[in-house]
Each structure stands twice: as structure tokens, then as C-alpha cells.
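Dear colleague,

Thank you for sharing your sequence with our group. We've completed the structure prediction you requested, and as agreed, I am returning the results in plain text so they can be pasted directly into your records. Please verify that the sequence below matches your submission; if there's any discrepancy, let me know and we will rerun it promptly.
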Amino acid sequence: MLDVAGLRFGYGRAGFALRVDALRVDTGESVALVGPSGSGKTTLLHLVAGILTPDAGQVRVAGEELGALDDAARRAFRVRQIGLVFQEFELLEYLSVADNLLLSYRLASRRIDAAVRERAHTLATRLGLDDKLGRRPAQLSQGERQRVAVCRALVTRPPLLLADEPTGNLDSANKERVLDALLELAGEVGTTVLMVTHDRELLRRFARVVDLEEILAVGPAA
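Please find the predicted C-alpha cells below.
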């Protein structure tokens, strides 16, 4: 599902350089990414999602070389193939929770039928959001906003799910609830999961753990 080779990326004046010589994630695999703050975990997820483009090397997702696509094609590919849970949630404040959950379908001009709405409602119920569907993000707690972001990423049943600390703002009970839903749905539909976490207690839930310090080289930009 994911094959990264010879990846190079730098922020220039910020003095940050990222190198990933090799990273492979098989279809249906659940992988946790760990590493210290500033090691480039979020940057790596954004490169895998095609939000950022590398200075060199290849990022191949589901057989598609992202570097060969222009901006519009990468956006279209991301909407169709990748579910994203951002650290800052990225919810649209002018939309209700229900409409935020269905945003990926609208961006991809995909039909929203009764089955899609039912799936969104079922996921919202599993994550304790069924009574929040008519609210706006500003009316939610941080933990509730986090759960909406997770639910939105899952509702399209994406082939690849990229999650950046999706349990970071949750208490212990909701942390387990969200991770249960995330991994169970992934297993049901064969979604590949690549998740950044600082929570060592969650690592036992994943098929594999990748320590970023073992695959990344971070330092001053050349």
C-alpha cells in the first residue's frame, strides 16, 4: 500500500531536513509510528498524503507515484484513496458535525445515498457523537472535535488511513473507544493504518511499530 524510497525534504531557512531511505507498509497492515518531538512525523505523513512534495525520492501509494501527479491530481487521489486525521482536526466551522462527516464525499463529487448516511450515523454512534450531529465544531469540546475528525476519516472506508495523534486529546476511556473503532473498521474493510502516537500504552494494539529514529535522519538543511 505504501512504499517510500530515497525520500528527501527540507524546509530551507527553517534548517530542517528529512531523509527516509526506505519505508514500506503492506496492504491491510496497522503500523504505529513513534519518535521524539521534532523528528518529522507530521511532515512524513503530509508527504505520504501528497500535501507536501519531496525534493527527491519516491512516495508510492496503492501503486500510484505521487510525484508524477500535478496538484489537482494529487488532491483528487487523496480524497479518493486516503483518510486523514490531522493534529489540529481541520473541521470546517461553518458546517454541522453531520456535514463535516460527509465532506470527503462532496469534495469528490460522490453520491451521498442512504447507505452512506447510515454508515456515518453508525460511526458517530460508536464514537459517542450521535447527539452532536446538528452542532457546529465551535460547540464541541476538544475531545469531541477529535472524535469527529476520526469519524470523518473513517466514513469513506479509505484504502489508507493516516492519523496524526488521533487520541491525543482524549481521556483513557475515549482513547480506547476511538482506537477500537479505528482498528476494527480498518480490519473489516482492509484499510491500511499508519498512525503517529506518543502513547506507548497503545502500541500493543498494532501489528507493527516503527521507531522513526531508526528510519529518519533529521538535522540542519544542507
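Summary note from our side: Helices lie at 41-49, 71-81, 97-101, 103-107, 114-126, 142-154, 172-189, 212-215.

Kind regards,
the structure core
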